[in-house]
Each structure stands twice: as structure tokens, then as C-alpha cells.
Fold each of these.
Amino acid sequence: MVYLYRGVNKDMDLINGGLLLPAGSTTKVVMLADGKWKCDGTIIAGECEHNAARAHQKDGGLYDAAGVSTTRSVAQALSFATYAGQDGYVYVLDEEVLAELGVVMKEFPDPEHLHEEEVTLLIADLKPVPRAAIIHKIEVLDGKPTRPIPRK
């Protein structure tokens, strides 16, 4: 089993009702000639999921791209879960179940933030990450998980 992780602080988790919601309103975008991109093959001409994931990784919500950021790194998920010094949660997601449910997962060899090990999830109907793909929600208190976080 291969896992992805999503770290969320308690305030954000409460606001989202315990759901992993996409930011933005479209899973396909056209990149703009606004100086944010180079013509080096990073982006693709036309409207597509590839561009939506690239935009989301550069700046969540850029061009209204609807993605959910996840990571392959437990340490990075813990960092996001404790954002602004808060306690939070690490969600553990099953990559196989996500694929079976039709969730598009985009990971790039040259990501915007290399240390984050981001895998951007794009969900066609803009619904939350399917509960069937969430295998654990682990509380993080004072920077430490309250139980072991499963690893690949």
C-alpha cells in the first residue's frame, strides 16, 4: 500500500467540517501570459489538468485551480498540521483507492517546492477527497502524533 499525507491544523479542519476540500473551482486551466511561467515545457498550451496542478502548486487557488495538496513526506504533513503553532491532524490517504475512485494525482519531477514532495489531487466533480480513500486521521498535539503514522 502506498500512502499520501495531508496535514491540516485544527482551525482549518474545523472550518472545513473535517473534509479535505479542493481550493478553487476548476480542475483544468489555461495558463496566462502574466510573467509567472517560462516557456520551458513546464506548462502546456490549452486548458488541462496538468496546468491546474502546476498552478495549484505554485500558489493554491492560482487561476482558480481546484486542487488538494498532499505529500509523500510524513515530516512535511506534520509541519502543515502544526502550522502557526497550532495542533492539528495528519490524514493518511490510500493512493490505490484514490486512483480507483478516479482522482487525478499529479506529481512533477521539477515541483515548485521540492522539499514538500507534493502530489496534487484533482477531483473532477470538485467534491471533497472521498472518505473511502482516507484510512486514518491522526491527531497531532505539541508537534507529535498521538499514535504512529503508517508509512509506505
Amino acid sequence: MPRGPNGGDRTTGPRSISPGSGTVHQNRFPSGSRTDRVHWERRRDLEGGKELGVWLLVDDEGAVDAELYVESHEYRGGGFDVYTATPDDEWTHVGEFGTREAAFDRALAFLEASDHPIGRR
């Protein structure tokens, strides 16, 4: 069974968002999120293999509300994908891209459009 970057099941999702649409969907994680205490942080210690970029939406205690991934599929002749995931294993496919640069640009646009600051790590 295909698995997501953190083990999520890809056979039932992620829900697709049209690539390159520029529209950020589902950018508030999760409902009831502690918006005054959460921020995005890049976690280079989690990057490696096909995970080229990993950001976590965390609170002050380090609890994870959401994850954002830039993933490479070059090893199988593919391009690059951007995904989000929640701790409840809800996956959203943000887009598929032909270049690493385009995938990172989309991930950074997603972060910048977020209600949460990009922070500290």
C-alpha cells in the first residue's frame, strides 16, 4: 500500500489541489488551533531521502498541529510534490512540480499565506 512521508495512507487521499493554481486551501490547521501560540519551523533534522523540505506547525510546548513536505520523486523518474498532513493523518496534495525550485516556491508561498508566523528554528 502506498504510504505518505510520515506513513499516511495515500490510497484514499491526499485530496488534490490543482497544481500551480496559486490558491492556498485548507491553510488553517486544525480548527481550534492555538493561533496565538503556534508557528512554523523548518526541521532539517527530519529531511533526507525523498523529503527535501519539512516544516512543522508547532506550539510553544512542541506539539505538532500540522506538517508541510516538499518531496522528490526523481528516484522513480518523477518530479516534486508538496503535501500537508495533520496528526489525524489527513493528507492534502498541494501540487506537483517539474523542478525542485518550483516546489519550494509553492511551499514557501503556502507558509507565507498561513495565519501563523514562520519561526525559530
Amino acid sequence: MPPLPTPGWIAKHAKELGDAVGIEAVVKYLGRNRWRISLDNERTHMHVDYRVQGRRFEWDGSTLTIDGKPAPLADSPEELALRFNEPDTSISELHADVVIPPAANIEDAPPIVAHTLRKNAAILKARNIKAHSQLSRSGMAAWVVGFYTDTSLIEIIIARKGNRWAVDELIRFVYQNREVKGVKTLRQVLAVFAEGTPRDGVSKGVRQADDVKRSPTSVEVRNSKVIRN
């Protein structure tokens, strides 16, 4: 049986990624309507998978590693090129230390703050994510609900708005000493821990397929799930 022809958008997108990095991309059919775009050099490896559903392309997982260790997705074609062409600079810029702020007494916290801490701590424990949990203050009108490991942290802010306390978006997420941008919910954080945990030295990536369920337009490097939205 002759090999399946590469879908036009897959071929075009592979060229866009290759041009951004300066490496020829390799396209491979994985079976069951799945296609993989790969870029490799001596130290950096990347692939992004797509599943073809009729006329739509759905993201089906990504890997970006430097020296065999998971690296976060880039925010621009320029950052992606840096991962490949200047990996030492990229690693240095990407490193984020986990700093635990001074703890605040849970007994002093409003009920919604204490409830948010206990609820999310229970969710992490149920997922076997072992993290130190605590509250801290952010000024006079905000609390930070934090979860910390040696290499990762999750921080959520609860701020006073008028006469009530409101749970805001996730304000900071560090995973394996890498700042992860664009993650706004605990559900997305859990996906990182579930899918981004290294398996044989690689990671499935940190983003979910929540915005690629359509036919892509011409130059959509940012929606590749290799470059973060």
C-alpha cells in the first residue's frame, strides 16, 4: 500500500515550524488518523501530534525536551528558535526557583480562604501530588493559597472585592523549576502533573487540546501547542 499523502495543512505547518527554528521538519504518519511533526538537533527534541477528524485537526500531544529533560512550551517563534539554537541560554532563562513565602495562620483567614486551601489540598492528595500547603498574605486585602514541592509551586490569590472575597485566577505555576504561563485553572495544573511528568526522559507537554478543534488558518504557529498561546 502506498504511503498516505501528507495533509496540506500538516505539511504547511511543518514548514512554518522548521523555518522558525532553521531545521527541516520531519512529518510521519502514526496510524489511526494521527500525524507527527518532529524537529531535532543534538540537544533539543520536539514533536507535536495532530489527529485528523474529518476536515479538522485536533492537537494530540506535544513533547519539547532539552538534553532529555522536559522544557516548557515557547511563547513565540523566537523563543522556540532559542530552545534549539541557544539551549544553554534558554535553560538559564527558564529556570525558576521555588520560594515559599512566610506562612499566615489559617485561623486568621476568612472561611472561603481556608475552604479553598483545604479543598485543593485534598484534590492534590487524591492525585498523589505531595505538596506542602499553606496560606500567606499579599498586602492587606488579599490571601495567597499556595502548594509547594522542591521543584514546583501553585499559587492562587483570593482578594477582597467590595464587601466580599473572590477567588481569582491562578497567579503563578512553576513545574520542575520552569515557569508555566497560560495555565489558569487547577484542572490545567493537574493535567501538567498527569501528562507532563517525565516518562523515559520526555514529557507529553503542558497544554490541553482546548482550542485547536477546527480547520487551522495559514500561519498559526502559536496554536501548534509547541508554541504556547
